[in-house]
């Protein structure tokens, strides 16, 4: 289980697993409950590289990041920690 503390968005933390190169069990803490449940379901079982590619760089309103972007960053960090 990875836990990532977000920066600059409504959700405060994201937890998830990486199983056999795929993202699983994504949970956002805080933020827009329905939208974040939807994102969690959409990325469930998605290969790590695909999730990062699809979510990285998405912004929210005037913010430089978003919950999907922060999830991509969390996955990148989790993948680095898993390998390193």
From TrEMBL:
Catalytic EC class: oxidoreductase
Domain of life: Bacteria
Keyword Lipoprotein belongs to the record: no
Keywords: DNA synthesis, Nucleotide-binding
Annotated TSCPD domain residues: 4-77
Pfam families: TSCPD
EC number per UniProt: 1.17.4.1
Reactions this protein catalyses: a 2'-deoxyribonucleoside 5'-diphosphate + [thioredoxin]-disulfide + H2O = a ribonucleoside 5'-diphosphate + [thioredoxin]-dithiol
Entry's family note: Belongs to the ribonucleoside diphosphate reductase class-2 family.
Official protein name in the record: ribonucleoside-diphosphate reductase
